[in-house]
Amino acid sequence: MLIETLSTFPQMFDAVMQSSMMRIAQEKGILEFVSHDLRDWTHDRHRTTDDDPYGGGSGLVMKCEPIYEALDDLALANQQVPKPYCVFMSPAGRPFSDQAASNLALKPRLLFVCGHYEGIDERAYDLADEVISIGDYVLTSGELASMVVIDAVVRKLEGVLGDATSALDESFCASLLEYPHFTRPSVYRGKEVPEVLLSGNHAAIALWRRKQSLERTLRLRPDLIDKARSQGSLDKDDWDFLDSLSKVPISGDEALS
Questions:
Q1: For the sheet containing 2-7, what is the strand order?
Q2: In the chain, which segments carry CATH 1.10.1270.20?
Q3: Global pTM value
Q4: What angle do CA 166, 33, 134 make, to 5 degrees?
Q5: 81 to each of 76, 110, 133, 150, how far by Cα in Å?
Q6: Burial class (CB in 10 A: 0-12, 13-18, 19+), 188
Q7: What is the pLDDT of residues 115-170, one digit of tens each?
Q8: Domain 2-154: which topology?
Q9: Of 38, 56, 117, 166, which sits most exposed with the smallest number of CB within 10 A?
Q10: Do the beta carbons of residue 30 and residue 43 sit within 8 Å?
Q11: Do the bridges between strand 109-113 and strand 2-7 make them parallel or antiparallel, or are there none, so unpaired?
C-alpha cells in the first residue's frame, strides 16, 4: 500500500512513521509512505498556503489553489499504482470507526489532505473521495488526526502485526470491547492474575475472555451491544450470559435470534 499526506507541516509525521509498527511495515515492504509539502505547489516568494477569510472573521483559511494543483500532479506522479483515494480530515466528516479502517485498508493508494488554522477553502472538498472525523472536538492540525487514521489502517494490512490473529481480537472488531490482558508477574502488590489464565485450559480461557468482553462492553459501552445484535455477532450463550448479569432485559425471541 502507498500512503501519502499533503500538509503544510510534513515533518510532523517523521517520529510516528519512523517508529514501531509503522517503521516495521515499511521495512517489510508492506507500506510505502510519502509526506508532501503543500508549499511546493505555491507560486509566491512567501510560499503562502493560507489567507484571510472572505466575509471577515478570525483566523486564516487554507487556500484551495495549491491543493488542486498538488492533487493534479500527484494523480499523475506514480503510474505504477492507481489514482490516490483522497481523504480529507475534518470535524464535519463521517465518524471514523474500525470498519472504516478496514475499508480504507483495501485501497492500494491513500492520500490524506491535512487542514490547519480555521480550515480549508470549501471548494477543495470537491476533490475528496471521503471526509473523516476522529471525534467531536477540534484539533489544531489535520496532521494529528490523519496519524490516528493511518495507524488504524496500517495495522489492518496483512503481515504488519506479528500475530495474524491480533487484529481480529481487538476492540470493536466484533462490535465489542476487548477482554482485559495480563502478563508476568502473576501476583503484584497483592493483585493476582485470574486463575483461569494460568490453567492452560484453552477452552476455559476462551470462554472467560468472551464473558469478560461482553461484561466490559455492557458496562462501559452498552450502545455497542445493540450494534453487535444488529450485526448478528451474539449467539444464544452470549445472550444468556448478558441476561444473567441482570443489567439488560432480554426477551426469549431476542436470545434465540
A1: 32-37, 2-7, 109-113, 85-95, 130-133
A2: 171-256
A3: 0.84
A4: 60
A5: 10, 11, 26, 18
A6: exposed
A7: 987 889 999 999 999 999 999 998 988 999 999 999 999 999 999 987 655 555 55
A8: Alpha/beta knot (3.40.1280)
A9: 56
A10: no
A11: parallel
